[in-house]
Amino acid sequence: MKQHGRHWLLLCLMIGFLVVPAAISLGEPDQVRIQEVEVRTSAHGPVVLLKVGKQAIPIFVDHTVAGSIQAALTGYRTARPLSHDLMHTILKSLGATVTQTVITLKDSTFYGALSVATKEGTKVFDSRSSDSIALAVHFKAPILVSRQLLDQSGKGPEMPQEQL
To answer: What is the pTM of this model?
Structure first.
């Protein structure tokens, strides 16, 4: 941030007139924080919707991952832990936490960059977007996308209507 911008931000914070935009930017300047994650069914199978305002990025996932994300969103516990539940438990027992995930799109495939913090520092792991989203939801960590990805892939309210 430029020096002038810092002074303006500080002044706004001190006076209390800071208006937080609907889409909160974190990290890189063009990154937007996902406001809501929703799991739905469609004619093509389960879909995870990453929502910001009236836009939603649809990511199609398998039934197991959809169930895991939905369970994490609702607090539902299965009789036996699913893979993401197990990873959540392992990371917590090791004193680690997921701090964020960044979802990107390359050659029509979504990717996740999962940031995990330990006492030694933070490491970023390449992952499937669905696994990265599932772990971020389990840890209540921010899910970030670029503004460009949101503008290019974000759909309007005509998304599939069936919720899991």
So the answer is: 0.78
